[in-house]
Structure formats: C-alpha cells, structure tokens
Amino acid sequence: MPPVVPPFLVGLIVAPLAKRLLRPLVSGVVKTSVGIAMEVKKAAHEVGENINDLAAEVTADVVAAQIAAADAGNRAVEESAGHAAGGAKAPKPRAAAAKAH
C-alpha cells in the first residue's frame, strides 16, 4: 500500500507551483478582458453618437414638416378668406409691401 499523504501537504507543494504557472495565464486573461471591455465601451459610445445624430435629423425633419403644414394651412385660410370677401386679395404684409415699392 502506498504511503498516504495528507491533502494539506499536497497543497503546500502544489500552491507555489500553481502560482508560478497560473499567474501569467491569469494576467493574460485579465489584460485581454480589459482590452475587450475598452473596445466594447468605444463601440457603444459610437453607437450612442449615431443614435443621437439620427434623432436630431428626424427631429429636424418633423419640425420642417410641421412648419410646411402650418404654412400650407395659412395659405389655404388666406385663399378661402379672399374668395369669401368677393375675390379681393388679402393685403400684402408690410415687409413685402415695402420691398415692392
């Protein structure tokens, strides 16, 4: 029968050996993980910027459409008011009248 070695003695012998062998491995894993995390953070930041740019473009398009709709509605009201008044044209705004003279 082989001699029985208590587990704590195995630990005392294996721990320093494992420390020397695993330290570079663990260090490499940590460095790689940090590098990947930094790349993911950078990519997420770029995606956030792209989403903000897209949101700004959509907002500008919506505002432009609302302004165009309001202008079209104002023109329709002016035209219907002109027809209701017997075909008389609506008076020119002062800025336009000053430029005409």
TrEMBL record:
Residues 82-101 have a biased composition (Low complexity). Residues 78-101 are annotated as: Disordered. It holds the Pfam family DUF5132. InterPro entries: DUF5132 (IPR033456). This is DUF5132 domain-containing protein.
